[in-house]
Amino acid sequence: MKTLYSPESKKIPTWLRDQRELKGLTMRQAGEIIGKPHSFVGKTEVGQRRLDVVEFVWYCKCLGFDAIEGLNEIID
Fold it and tell me: Cα separation of 69 and 65, whole Å?
């Protein structure tokens, strides 16, 4: 099963962007918090860069997002 362009794979980047915006963070600020360039954040949020599950949890933890809530986006 190919997941790259599945509906579920598109939900996570959108959820990450929404969470960042809810926190009032710019991509640059989020990048500074996680220690990556803002382009990393941008590519992640548009789905050009995929996070594995460990990266996803780390990303969420650094930015104060609930990783379980994010995973529920694709489970439901």
Answer: 8
pLDDT tens digits for range 11-65: 999 999 999 999 999 999 999 999 999 999 999 999 999 999 999 999 999 999 9
Residue 60: CATH number of its domain: 1.10.260.40
User: Which residues are CB-neighbours of 76 under 8 A, at least 6 positions away?
Assistant: none
The number of distinct structural domains making up the chain is 1
φ/ψ of 52, rounded to 5, equals -75, 175
Instruction: Look at residue 2 and tell me if it is in a domain.
Output: no
